[in-house]
Design a protein that fits this description.
Elements lengths: L6 H19 L2 H31 L3 H7 L3 H7 L4 H38 L6 E4 L6 E4 L5 E5 H5 L3 H16 L2 H14 L4 H23 L2 H14 L16 H9 L8 H41 L34
Length: 341
């Protein structure tokens, strides 16, 4: 536990630094899936490591030790974590959990507001055209979602560029990109180190929609022109939509569309998978070490109680190996059908 409990922190920091630039060079769809998986695993590893570090301090509280039936002195003697590290981990974990709760409430409100807007839009088709001169275009997730475009935006684009714009927004809905955004926002709230991953993920989603639009239209240049013109037209006027063709770093998206499609690369994905596997294995090892430490503390309490028993055993309930905390059992030799916590 002394080393393995800190490995998820190192894996998270490594992915936070390396994942964004690598994801920009990968095909956007597998890059988005990989970033979502990395965010989920590293956020769980981050919270799990903090919980294990914090528990070594919490478990030494007399009331907690009495409830758990282990020896505080034995646990303290076997505890490899400094008290200040455990205290800081407890504080950080509490802040992260509160941050996650706030982010979850905000994300839930955002999705509910999007569904209400979908229901209030005129018409019942996928496309809703607003009679507004302000150029806006975005996709609203819902059941089903809808594409919203203003007449001001349509007047600024040619026929093929309109087709490209609608194909882009349709790709957002078809790929359920709002789910990816929710994952990144929530994991970044729990683990602040994942904020660069969330930013990179939003860019990758726009690239994913760009590539699907290019396949639908059959001309990458047309999509690049549509993205550039839509961004220029809506500069300073577009609403902060979650899924919009004008999102992300537009110059980079345009350059990517004017270049050939990104080549498939399996090595970065394999390396990332190995890092995530290392994160999971180290966390499991740290949890196992913590479990053995608690077993030893429980055994120490049982043996201490047995040593203070002076009355001769007259029955099962009076045996020195029995006491108010239950039957003592050697943690290294569990009996048949018995499990240790």
């Amino acid at each position: 536990m002394l080393i393995s409990v800190y490995i998820p922190f190192l894996v998270t920091a490594t992915l936070a630094v390396l994942a964004p630039p690598v994801a920009h060079r990968l095909p956007p769809r597998p890059a988005a899936l990989a970033l979502a998986c990395a965010a989920l695993v590293t956020a769980a590893g981050w919270a799990g490591s903090l919980a294990l570090l914090a528990f070594t301090e919490v478990a030494q509280i007399p009331e907690v030790a009495e409830e758990g039936r282990w020896s505080v002195s034995a646990l303290r003697s076997h505890d490899p974590v400094y008290a200040v590290v455990a205290a800081v981990s407890t504080l950080v974990l509490a802040v992260c959990v509160v941050s996650l709760g706030v982010a979850a409430v905000r994300q839930g409100r955002h999705l509910l507001r999007a569904r209400r807007e979908c229901a209030e839009l005129p018409g019942h088709t996928e496309l809703a055209v607003l009679d507004d001169d302000v150029p806006v275009a975005f996709a609203l997730p819902g059941a089903p979602g809808r594409i919203v475009v203003s007449r001001g935006m349509l007047r600024r684009l040619g026929a093929f560029e309109r087709e490209a714009l609608l194909a882009h927004e349709r790709a957002h809905l078809r790929g359920r990109h709002h789910v990816f955004q929710s994952v990144w926002r929530l994991t970044a709230a729990l683990n602040p180190l994942l904020r660069p991953v969330a930013v990179a993920g939003n860019f990758v989603l726009e690239r994913w929609a760009d590539e699907e639009a290019a396949e639908r239209v059959g001309d990458r240049t047309v999509v690049a022109h549509a993205v550039g013109r839509a961004a220029l037209a809506s500069a300073g006027a577009s609403r902060p939509a979650a899924l919009a063709a004008t999102g992300g770093v537009v110059p980079q998206r345009v350059r990517a569309l004017l270049a050939p499609p990104p080549a498939r690369r399996s090595l970065p994905l394999l390396a990332g998978g190995l890092l995530l596997a290392l994160c999971c294995a180290s966390l499991a090892n740290a949890a196992s070490d913590s479990d053995r430490m608690l077993d030893s503390a429980q055994w120490a309490l049982c043996t201490a109680h047995a040593g203070t028993t002076t009355a001769a055993p007259t029955g099962p309930d009076d045996d020195p190996g029995h006491g108010p905390h239950g039957r003592c059992a050697d943690p290294d030799r569990p009996e048949h059908g018995e499990r240790h916590l």
